[in-house]
Structure formats: structure tokens, C-alpha cells
Specification:
- The protein is α/β, with parallel strands linked by helices.
- It has seven helices and 17 strands.
- The chain has helices at 30-37, 99-109, 149-160, 176-182, 222-232, 243-250, 282-292, and strands spanning 19-23, 41-43, 48-53, 56-64, 71-81, 86-90, 116-120, 126-130, 135-143, 167-175, 187-190, 202-205, 217-220, 238-240, 255-260, 268-270, 273-277.
- It has a five-stranded mixed β-sheet. Strands 10-9-15-17-16 form a five-stranded mixed β-sheet, with helices on both faces. Strands 12-11-13-14 form a four-stranded parallel β-sheet, sandwiched between helices.
- The radius of gyration is 26 Å and the shape is elongated.
- The two termini are 36 Å apart.
- The model has no long low-confidence stretch (mean pLDDT 94).
Length: 302
């Protein structure tokens, strides 16, 4: 099977053992790379080769004669980039098996005319990425705490899930003070004691079930209202904090990771939006990100 003439953005060796790095005795110009690799034996998991001479690098994709042997001969070579379009980067703290970390290293060193970035990172492992273009995923949250938990969970997933393409998490927040300012009052009822929340009025917390019903404005969601009806038998004035409603009513494009307190467990996915429970675990956040990036098929959601 012939190799691709032109890679797509974010192409990389996944896993990175599919890239073989070889030091050669002359500058790896396209003609030399083809002659050097054609008919050469390579390990049966090798699909890409970076040829290095001093600081010059050439990157090629190869097809192998699939024989089932440990080493197979190269039957097709496509030179993806010559030394003019390839950059060798050394960043020892970068996990080159992680696409987001790999893209970050490339973008920190990017300059016009460079398409391929060969990165030597942690443990001296090496990988490449082609024209890094991270996928933007918006994480919508109410703060404080700041940074919010859902963002930190998403960051954790991006740091360990090597199947994900490069991702840029973009925080989209609204704060409790911003919400309170829409309905000025002398007393507010919040869902729980948030980290560092300060409002211009008395504050009570629904999760403590205050003994006395105050004349408060509740800053909360539909689940908070259900609790209030159960505790006090009525509905107070409300500022709705629901992140899901914010996104659905604004109907923005792009990809969104959003909390929904009406979900008990699991997640929901629709139209570039992934909804996870208010107390989401890392497995739920991971599945949401895999769906948002296309790593996992949406048809599997159930």
C-alpha cells in the first residue's frame, strides 16, 4: 500500500515507536533519503523515519513489504519534509507520546516555512508532529473555585490519554459575583460553600439546610430549586447558574465540555457538546473528550 504524499495537520507517530531515527553521513535531502531508504530493512512497526545529519533533519514515510518477519524491506518512500522544512527540537521535559505536549513544544519553536517538528523529549524519546493545530475545546464553568475542578480534570485527562490529538482547553466562566450583580439583594443562598466566594450581602448555603428561611435570592440551578422546594415548600427568586442552559441558549459553534447537575452519572453527547455530571469523575471527563475529538465514535454513547 503506497504511503500518503502529504500528511494532515497533527500527524504524528502513534505510538512513537513507529518512528525510527537514524543518523546519516550527509545532509538528508530528498534524493538521498529515497536512495537511502528504498529496499532497506526496517523494523516491522516502522512507518516513519527521521534522518539526521548534524542539525539537519529529513522526514519520510515508508511502506514495507509485509512478510510477518521481524524486519521488512521498504518498498515505497515518500519524503514529507527536507531540512528546510523540518526542525529538530530538544525539550527534555516533554512527553513525546502525548500529542498535546508534542504540539506545545512545536508551537513554542514554530517559524514560517517549517511543517515538520522532530522533538527529542523525556527519556530522550523522539517523535514528530506535522503542522500542529490543536483542537479547541471550551470548558464552561461557574467560579469560584478558580481554576474550576472540571478544567483541572480535563487537563489531567489530556496529560495522560495518548490517544487524544492535540487539544487546547479554553476556559469559559461566569462568576458568582457576576451572577449576584444581576439581582442585587441583601441575602443570597448558594448551593454550597464555594472556595473564596464573597458577595455584597449575607450568604447562606443550601447544602447546610439553614434552619430559618431568609428572604434570599438563590443562585443555583434546577436541582438547587428542587432541594429548596423540598426543604421550605416554596420557590425563591433565582439566578440560574446552569452551564448547560448557557451553552444551549447561546448555541455557539465549536466543541464544549459542560457540567449538568441533572445528570447523576455517565454523560450525554450531542452536536459538539459533551455534558458530564456536576460531580463528574475522570472516566466521564475522559469519555467526553474522546467524543469531542472524534477518538471515540458518537454512535457508542449510551
Amino acid at each position: 500500500m503506497p504511503v500518503a504524499e502529504t500528511p494532515s495537520s497533527n500527524a504524528r507517530a502513534h505510538p512513537y515507536r513507529r518512528l525510527s531515527v537514524q543518523h546519516v553521513d550527509q545532509v538528508p535531502e530528498p534524493g538521498f533519503v529515497r536512495d537511502y531508504l528504498m529496499g532497506r530493512e526496517v523494523y516491522r512497526r516502522t512507518d516513519y523515519l527521521a534522518l539526521i545529519h548534524d542539525g539537519s533533519v529529513g522526514l519520510a514515510a515508508v511502506a514495507r513489504a509485509e512478510s510477518g518477519e521481524l524486519f521488512e524491506r521498504v518498498v515505497d518512500v515518500e519524503v514529507w519534509s527536507d531540512p528546510e522544512g523540518t526542525m529538530l527540537i530538544e525539550e527534555p521535559a516533554v512527553d513525546v507520546g502525548n500529542a498535546t505536549a508534542l504540539a506545545g513544544a512545536a508551537l513554542r519553536h514554530a517559524r514560517p516555512g517549517i511543517s515538520a517538528f522532530v522533538v527529542k523529549g523525556m527519556f530522550e524519546h523522539i517523535n514528530f508532529i506535522w503542522e500542529p493545530d490543536p483542537i479547541h475545546i471550551y470548558v464552561t464553568e461557574v467560579t469560584p473555585p478558580d481554576p474550576p475542578k472540571l478544567l483541572r480534570q480535563a487537563q489531567q485527562v489530556v496529560e495522560f490519554d495518548e490517544d487524544l490529538p492535540p487539544v487546547e482547553l479554553v476556559l469559559d466562566t461566569v462568576t458568582f459575583p457576576d451572577l449576584a450583580a444581576t439581582v442585587p439583594a441583601g441575602s443570597y443562598l448558594l448551593p454550597c460553600r464555594g472556595a473564596g466566594t464573597e458577595l455584597p450581602g449575607d450568604m447562606s448555603y443550601l447544602d447546610t439546610r439553614p434552619a430559618d428561611r431568609d428572604d434570599w435570592v438563590m443562585i443555583g440551578c434546577e436541582r438547587s430549586m428542587q432541594f429548596h422546594r423540598h426543604f421550605y415548600g416554596d420557590e425563591p427568586p433565582q439566578v440560574d447558574i446552569c452551564p448547560r442552559k448557557r451553552v444551549e441558549e447561546a448555541d455557539p459553534g465549536g466543541r464544549w465540555l459542560v457540567k449538568c447537575c441533572m445528570l447523576e452519572r455517565g454523560m450525554e453527547f450531542s452536536g459538539g457538546r459533551a455534558f458530564v455530571p456536576w460531580g463528574a469523575n475522570l472516566d466521564e471527563v475522559r469519555r467526553a473528550l474522546r467524543l469531542l475529538t472524534g477518538v471515540e465514535a458518537a454512535a457508542l454513547v449510551g
